[in-house]
Each structure stands twice: as structure tokens, then as C-alpha cells.
Design goal:
The complex is a heterotrimer of chains A (333), B (288) and C (276).
Chain A (H helix, E strand, L loop, with lengths): L3 E10 L2 E11 L4 E5 L6 H9 L6 E6 L2 E2 L10 E4 L11 H11 L4 H14 L15 H13 L5 E5 L7 H18 L2 E6 L2 H7 L2 E6 L2 E6 L1 H6 L4 H6 L6 E4 L1 H5 L4 E4 L4 E3 L5 E10 L3 E7 L7 E6 L9 E6 L5 E3 L5 E2 L1
Parallel strand pairs in A: 3-8, 3-9, 6-7, 7-8
Antiparallel strand pairs in A: 1-2, 1-4, 4-5, 9-10, 11-12, 12-18, 13-17, 14-15, 14-17, 15-16, 18-19
Helix pairs in contact in A: 2-3, 2-4
Chain B lengths: L3 H33 L1 E4 L4 E5 L3 H8 L3 H31 L5 H9 L6 H12 L6 H8 L7 H4 L1 H26 L3 H9 L4 H29 L3 H6 L9 H11 L3 H30 L2
Antiparallel strand pairs in B: 1-2
Chain C lengths: L6 H28 L4 H4 L14 H10 L1 H32 L5 H12 L7 H11 L5 H25 L3 H9 L4 H30 L3 H4 L8 H6 L9 H21 L1 H8 L6
Helix pairs in contact in C: 1-12, 3-12, 4-7, 4-9, 5-7, 7-9, 8-9
The chains are: A alpha+beta (333), B mainly alpha (288), C mainly alpha (276).
Chain lengths: 333, 288, 276
């Protein structure tokens, strides 16, 4: 079991409110991602759940038990840190065993769990090494192994992949997703990378300045962003925003179109000049200037497109995919 | 990461150190201040009552005061110049590739670990003695008249002894700083056609400036209270009476505690002026 | 910034550095050599370098005449005691400042540092008086306390810089893993902090061993450590070079060896972490 409920949770450091009153429920077995720009309070929120920070006010319930005053060790949660936080003076085996040792789990049970975790995480050959002798990816796996063996009510991940290089990150992303499929344990995952959020989450919580901007499944956020902030944050490359006459025509203060929802069409209403064209093979990203709409419009065209720097281009937004926002940035319609 | 519980535990754990140092600072300091305003001669009548600023004026206007300030300045200044200049050169040399680098480092650092009384005595007797000292042998070997270093050039001799003790310290710290110099930066400057000298002047020296400042400040604080070296070589004779030594003589030798305490207050103020600069640098470093 | 050079340049560097190194080391070397000479050889003109009849008699005479071992024992007790006491007091303080920093932490650290800058001579008489009152004059316990106090800021600082390098996340991980404060300190913090504590102990011991203001002014016959023992050679016994050298060699040898182990940590300890 691992349902986590936050009720009117607030956190202030001195005079600054990091988290204004916040309510959120994370269902048992859910993979929930907190995403937002740095300084949005997502890590603080995770640390509040972990018990590493005191609540200023409000209640945190784990499986309907008030856990607000429970010390971190007693909450039954496991955490994977950004820096991995492995104990450098202990072997991999001892690192993984540490939480069980603290919980006085019998030695043979400890060994059984260690072997199982090591097998699942491909660490069997490294059990007697020190963390310093491992690569980044391996260290990350040890940290996950240390979390798994506790059989926690929920896993907390604090930007676990940000210290890995790009290729490894993709691999570990898949491994964590697979782990979730296998264990079906609640996972709360903090990241600033919207790609991680989109690919892994059952539920994404978008945060800005401690506020929840929107909660929903990845595709809900993609299709129906509540406001300009979410619209701009979810999706890559970023959504194009257009203000002025073109927006007013649609009765909005600003409109947003994702790069993949702009077609190159000879009869399109928008004209411009191709700046940089990024040819990826599967897609071509065009950065279009001089449209009179925005500084740059990013266009994602399927496959290989023969346009080059300086070529004129006409563009057509897919009308059904145009998002409209009011002056405050909230979604219209 | 702090929770309420860990914060109160932290305060409790800091308490012994804070309380002890507070006592160590406040109790003697208050007493020194108290004595400095009193006429206090332990062997000649004891505590003879308040005298206002009399001690301060007397200490300041005594014939020994200005010479002692001058001696202090020459001593501290001389040692600083020698250790910093030689320290930079030595640090740059030790940073170069060579065989047996570790061993040379060990040789260079050794004097720092020699206790002050030993180094003062060894220099005084075995090197600077006008009859049997090694230097007098050397002088005679080249046909010169041996010099009685500690009575003819007492202050210069002391500067040599103390510089020998502190050169390792300066070298070690400057070497650490030199080693953190960015190699690519130096190569870029070389590509840009900068000569060895201009690289030293425009890259190395600015890079070292912080370390140099720290060496100067820390050494100044230690050098201002140099005691044992004077105590066992000249005993304060022959114009080697520094401010510290003068105060020591007033307090323990002539047992004029009031006068000595007033001098002590001057010394504390002097040390604090240097300390403020040092603390600024160290404090800035803490913010990172 | 070390970089590749030609073998010729490397040879020049080596020659130059060794010459200067030996020159700087020479007074120590000369002292050690002289300690094995007879008094006559010690003042021979021209001086003899290696071709003398090596003898250990000076060491025997020094011990016999002045009970060297008693001074050595005092030095060990005073330096060791002040170091142990200082570390016991400093570890919790540095721990809390490094891991539970508050707004005042920086001020407290700088203030501790400032007590180190207090010129000893400025408080000589008050301490002298307090020692007389408490019967601590010429006692080892008195010096243990004084030397602990003057080195405490350095010990706290050094430990603080070491502790600060231990990532806070590791301690949080331990807390998440179910470790209480006791287990956290015992199983995680202490093993990680041991190397730093060891270097701190070493530096504190060296500084206390060589301290020569309080040890000279607050001791007489009973508690005098090696600094005072050597100072007693000031005259006229100082003219017996071989014995002076033997006594000096014995006084500096232990610390010279310890010092060579601690040269890297020395920089950190003496610059309060300002130069790395």
C-alpha cells in the first residue's frame, strides 16, 4: 500500500513561503512526477513527504495515517538522491544492506533480498566493490537497490538521472519504468526534465513557485494545458506563442501552436524566412524568422525537408490544435 | 535539511566549545582591561588603586615604546618580505617537473616543525656564534673577520632565524595556490604570445594574490607575538625588544602589571586590526 | 600547472631544487650530525662533516644529566592531552555547524577564529594570576587546558572544513534508511570523518608540541616540556654543541616525522580553509 495525501501543506523558510497551501493525492501504485523549473519547490515538496523537512502547517497522510510528525526513518519510504548518496566507506553489498541492518532484519533474509536486488539491477558482479569504483549508472543502480530492499510503501526519486550522460539517462529511464511495472509500488519522481515526466509518469504535477499549475496524465497536459506556463513547459520543442492581431482574430490575448502542429503549405496564411534548419533525418526543425508574428517560429516537419537557410516558406497552423489564452495566461475554451 | 529536533541538538553540541572560548576570551581580557586602569605592582605594594589612563600614557610615552614599535615593524616587515618573495620563487620552482619532487618538498618543509626554542638555539650557538659558529668558520676561510651576529646585527640575525622558520609555511601555501593555476589558461597565454615574464606578471601573480594576502595576514598575527626566539637569543637586549617582549618584561620582569596590561591592550588592538582583514577574506570564502 | 618539459630542463630544475632544499634543511642536518660528534669534534676548525668518530655518548649524557625522559613525557602528556580534549570538544561543535548550519554559524566560526588572534602577551598576567589562584602553575593539567583553548579554534575550523565536504545527502540517506542519530554518527559519519579527524589530531599535536610562550612562562621544574628543556640550554650549556644537538634532535625528531605525514593537511589547517 502507498497512498499519499497532502492536505493544506505549507512550508516557509523564514519569511519566504516556498509552498503555499497545497493539496494533492497520490494513489497507491501510481507513478507520479513532480516537474517544474528549478526553484519551483518540487524538491522541497518531496523532502516534506520524506520527512527531511518539517512542515510549516498542514497534514501529510500515508495510507490514511497522519505521518506529519513521524521521523523520516519511520515513514516507510525509500529515497533515491540526485548525488546517489552512497556510503563511500561501505561495499555495494553493505550499502544495500544498510537499511535492513537498521531495521534488524535477519541476516539470511538480508542476503536473499540483496541477491534478488543485485540480480534485478545487474549488480551481482559488483557487490564487493566500493561505490568509488563504479560508474555513474552503476552507482545509480546501487542507490535504487538500497531503496528496493526496504520494500517501502513508496519510492521517492529526487532528480535521479541529472548526473548521468544523455545516453545513460535514456537507459535508466527505461529501467525505472520497468521497475515500476514490476513492483507496482507508488513512486514519486522529481525532475526538471519534461521528457522524463512525459515518458515515465502516470500522473504529472506541474509546479511553479510552489503552486500546482496542473495535475494530469501526460497526454492530458499535452492536449489541454491549463495555462501558458504548462503549455510552454510540456512538449519539445517548445510551443510557439503568438500575440497581437493574429491572436485577437481568435478572440484571445495570445495563441499557442506546437511546432508539430504547423504545416508547410503553399497556401498557408503565415510567411517567413528559414533561419537555421536542423536536419535530424526523422524530423526537420525549422526556425522561421520574419513572420511578423513572433521572433522565431519553430516548425517541426516530418522526415527530410529540402529547405535551407534563407529560403522563403509559407506555413499553416492546424486550426484544431491552436490553444487560446487570455491576458492572465489562462486557457480559453 | 534541518528539522527542529536536529537544531536543538546542534545547539547543545556547540555549547561546550562556545562557552569555553567565550570564557577564555572574556575573563582574561576583562582582567587585563581592569589592571590597565590600576596602579598594580605585585612586589611593591600590590594594588594601589585607580589611575585612569595613566598607564596608557606612561606606556605610550616611555622611552622604550617607540623603539619597540620600530623593532616590531622591522622584524615583521623583514620576515614578511623575505618569506613571501622567496616563497613565491620556491613555490614556482617546486611546481616544475623534477626528479624526487616529494623528497625536496619534505626538505623544504622541515624547518616549520622545529620547535622555536630549538631553532633559535641552534642558530645562535652553532651558526652565529663568533668563535665556534659555522659562519665564523666560513668567514675565516675566506679571510674575513668573524662577525658576532647576535650582538652586531641582532635584528638582522633574528630576521634570518625567523624567516628560516616561516619560509616553509609561505612556500607550502603558495605552492598549493600555484598548483591550482589553470594549465589551459597558461597555454592560451602562450598561444597569445605572452613571454614568461609577462605570464608571471599578468597570470601567475594575480592568481596568487589571494594566497599571498593570506600568508601575509596569518604570518603577521604569529610574528607580532614572536617570543621564544627573542627569549633564548638576545633576551630583548641589543634593540631586539619588540612590543610583545616589552610587555612581557613590564609584566613579569619588572612586575608592573598595570603598565604591562596597558601595553597588552595596545597589542590586542594592533592584532585586531590585522585580524579584521584576515577575517574578511576567510568569511568571504565561507559563503561559497 | 605542471607540464611536460625537456629532460635537460628537468635536470636543471632537479639540481636547483635539491640544492635549495638541502640548503634549507642544512641546519637540521647539521644538528643531527653534530649530536653524534664528541664535543671536541663539534667545535673543530675547520668543521668536520662526516669524517668523525660517531658516538652516542651525548644522548646518554643528556638523559643522565637532565632527565630528558621526564621532559619528553611532559611534552607527550601536554600535547596529547590538549589534542584529545580539544578534539572531544570540537567534533560535536564542528559537526553541528557543518550539518545543521544556521544564520549564525558563520559568525560563530569567525568569532572563534578571532579568539585565536588574541595576543598571548596581552593576557599573560591574568592567566598567570588565575593559575596561581587555582594552583595550576607548573602543572601539566593547566597547560593541557591552555593549549587546548589556543588550538580549539583551529581544530574546530579544520574539522568543519572536512565535515562540510561530506555531502549532507548521505546523512539524509542514512536517516531515510532508518538510522537514528546514534547510528548515523556511528555507522556513517564517523567512518567518513576519520581521515579528517586524524589529520586534525596530527596538526593540533604538532602545534601544541612546539608551543613556546605558555610552556615557557607557566612552567618551572615539574611540568616543563621539551620547549622549556631546550631553553634551559640557552647558556652557558649551549656552548656544548654536541649535547645541545643531541637534546635538540631528540626534541624535534618525533614531530619532524609526524609533520612529514601531515604536510598536505597543514595548508588547510593553518589557512582556515581559505587556500585549497
Amino acid at each position: 500500500m502507498g497512498q499519499i495525501t497532502l492536505e493544506n501543506v505549507t512550508k516557509s523558510f523564514g519569511d519566504t513561503d516556498v509552498i503555499p497551501p497545497l493539496n494533492l493525492t497520490i494513489e497507491d501504485g501510481e507513478f507520479c512526477v513532480f516537474v517544474g523549473p528549478s526553484g519551483c519547490g518540487k524538491s522541497t515538496l518531496l523532502r516534506l513527504i520524506a520527512g527531511l523537512e518539517d512542515l510549516t502547517s498542514g497534514t501529510i497522510r500515508i495510507d490514511d495515517q497522519d505521518a506529519s510528525q513521524v521521523p523520516p526513518a519511520k515513514r516507510g519510504l525509500a529515497m533515491v538522491f540526485q548525488s546517489y548518496a552512497l556510503y563511500p566507506h561501505m561495499s555495494v553489498r553493505k550499502n544495500i544492506a544498510f537499511p535492513m541492518r537498521m531495521a534488524n532484519i535477519p541476516q539470511d533474509e538480508q542476503n536473499r533480498r540483496i541477491e534478488a536486488a543485485a540480480k534485478a539491477l545487474n549488480l551481482t558482479d559488483y557487490l564487493d566493490r566500493r561505490p568509488g569504483q563504479l560508474s555513474g549508472g552503476q552507482r545509480q543502480r546501487v542507490a535504487i537497490g538500497r531503496a528496493i530492499v526496504r520494500e517501502p510503501a513508496a519510492f521517492l526519486f529526487d532528480e535521479p538521472l541529472s548526473n548521468l550522460d544523455a545516453a545513460l539517462r535514456v537507459g535508466m529511464r527505461l529501467e525505472i519504468s520497468e521497475l515500476h511495472e514490476r513492483l507496482k509500488t507508488t513512486m514519486i519522481y522529481v525532475t526538471h526534465d519534461q521528457v522524463e515526466a512525459m515518458t515515465m509518469a502516470d500522473k504529472i504535477v506541474v509546479l511553479r513557485a510552489g503552486h500546482i499549475e496542473q495535475v494530469g496524465s501526460p497526454l492530458e497536459l499535452y492536449r489541454q494545458p491549463n495555462n501558458r506556463f504548462v503549455a510552454g513547459f510540456i512538449g519539445s520543442p517548445k510551443m510557439n506563442f503568438v500575440t497581437g492581431a493574429e491572436a485577437e482574430k481568435l478572440g484571445a490575448d495570445s495563441i499557442g501552436v506546437r511546432p508539430e502542429h504547423i504545416d508547410i503549405a503553399d497556401d498557408g496564411p503565415w510567411r517567413g524566412t528559414v533561419g537555421i534548419a536542423e536536419h535530424l533525418g526523422s524530423d526537420t526543425f525549422l526556425h522561421v524568422h520574419d513572420t511578423g508574428l513572433a521572433d522565431t517560429l519553430t516548425v517541426r516537419a516530418k522526415g527530410e525537408v529540402g529547405l535551407r537557410h534563407g529560403d522563403p516558406v509559407t506555413l499553416a497552423p492546424q486550426e484544431s490544435q491552436v490553444h487560446r489564452f487570455d491576458a492572465a495566461g489562462a486557457r480559453l475554451g | 535539511m534541518a528539522t527542529q529536533q536536529s537544531r536543538s541538538a546542534a545547539r547543545l553540541m556547540m555549547a561546550p566549545a562556545v562557552v569555553l572560548l567565550l570564557g577564555w576570551m572574556l575573563i582574561p581580557l576583562t582582567m587585563t582591561l581592569w589592571f590597565s586602569f590600576r596602579r598594580y605592582l605585585p612586589l611593591r605594594g600590590g594594588d594601589l588603586g585607580w589611575t585612569g589612563f595613566d598607564n596608557y600614557v606612561r606606556f605610550f610615552t616611555s622611552s622604550a615604546f617607540w623603539p619597540s614599535v620600530q623593532t616590531t615593524l622591522i622584524l615583521v616587515g623583514g620576515v614578511l618580505v623575505i618569506t613571501v618573495v622567496l616563497g613565491i620563487l620556491l613555490a614556482l620552482l617546486l611546481d616544475q617537473p623534477m626528479w624526487g619532487q616529494g623528497a625536496v618538498r619534505v626538505l623544504v618543509i622541515a624547518p616549520f616543525f622545529v620547535m622555536p626554542t630549538v631553532s633559535a638555539l641552534v642558530w645562535k650557538n652553532m651558526f652565529m656564534d663568533p668563535v665556534n659558529g659555522l659562519f665564523s668558520h666560513l668567514w675565516r676561510a675566506v679571510g674575513a673577520e668573524p662577525v658576532a651576529f647576535l650582538s652586531d646585527v641582532p635584528l638582522g640575525s633574528l630576521i634570518v632565524i625567523i624567516s628560516w622558520q616561516w619560509l616553509p609555511f609561505a612556500t607550502l601555501i603558495l605552492l598549493t595556490a600555484v598548483q591550482s593555476l589553470d594549465n589551459e589558461q597558461m597555454e592560451a597565454a602562450e598561444m597569445d604570445g605572452a613571454s614568461v615574464l609577462s605570464r608571471f606578471r599578468h597570470l601567475v601573480l594575480p592568481h596568487l594574490s589571494r594566497a599571498i594576502t593570506i600568508v601575509i595576514l596569518i604570518q603577521t598575527i604569529f610574528l607580532l607575538s614572536i617570543f621564544a626566539e627573542i627569549f633564548v637569543t638576545t633576551g630583548g637586549a641589543f634593540d631586539t625588544r619588540t612590543l610583545t617582549y616589552l610587555i612581557y618584561q613590564r609584566v613579569l620582569e619588572s612586575q608592573n602589571v598595570g603598565l604591562g596590561s596597558a601595553g597588552g591592550v595596545y597589542a590586542i588592538i594592533l592584532a585586531n586590526i590585522v585580524a579584521i582583514f584576515l577575517m574578511r577574506i576567510v568569511g568571504k570564502n565561507l559563503d561559497r | 600547472m605542471a607540464r611536460a618539459v625537456t629532460p635537460k630542463q628537468k635536470a636543471i630544475n632537479t639540481g636547483l631544487a635539491w640544492t635549495i632544499g638541502l640548503l634549507i634543511f642544512f641546519p637540521i642536518l647539521w644538528t643531527i650530525l653534530t649530536s653524534f660528534k664528541t664535543e671536541a669534534e663539534a667545535i673543530a676548525s675547520p668543521p668536520v662533516f662526516l669524517n668523525f668518530s660517531w658516538t652516542l655518548e651525548n644522548y646518554a649524557i643528556v638523559q643522565e644529566r637532565s632527565d630528558y625522559l621526564r621532559f619528553l613525557w611532559n611534552s607527550v602528556i601536554i600535547a596529547g592531552g590538549s589534542t584529545i580534549l580539544g578534539v572531544i570538544i570540537a567534533v560535536p561543535a564542528a559537526w553541528s555547524m557543518a550539518f545543521v548550519p544556521s544564520r549564525r554559524t558563520k559568525d560563530i566560526l569567525l568569532w572563534m577564529l578571532s579568539t585565536k588572534m588574541l595576543p598571548a602577551v596581552g593576557v599573560l598576567y591574568p592567566i598567570y594570576l588565575i593559575f596561581i589562584q587555582l594552583g595550576l602553575l607548573d602543572s601539566r593539567i593547566g597547560l593541557v587546558v591552555i593549549l587546548m583553548l589556543i588550538n580549539l579554534p583551529i581544530i574546530v575550523w579544520m574539522l568543519y572544513t572536512y565535515f562540510r565536504e561530506i555531502p549532507g545527502e548521505i546523512l539524509e540517506a542514512a536517516r531515510m534508511d532508518g538510522a537514528g542519530l546514534r547510528e548515523e554518527i556511528l555507522y556513517v559519519l564517523t567512518p567518513m570523518a576519520v581521515p579528517g579527524i586524524a589529520s586534525t589530531v596530527l596538526l593540533s599535536f604538532i602545534l601544541a608540541w612546539n608551543e613556546a610562550f605558555w610552556t615557557l612562562n607557566l612552567t618551572a621544574a615539574n611540568a616543563a616540556p621539551l620547549t622549556a628543556f631546550i631553553a634551559s640550554y640557552s647558556s652557558p650549556e649551549g656552548l656544548f654543541y654536541a649535547k645541545l644537538s643531541a637534546a635538540s634532535t631528540m626534541a624535534i625528531a618525533p614531530i619532524l616525522i609526524l609533520g612529514w605525514f601531515s604536510q598536505k593537511q597543514l595548508v588547510r589547517g593553518l589557512t582556515f580553509g581559505a587556500v585549497k
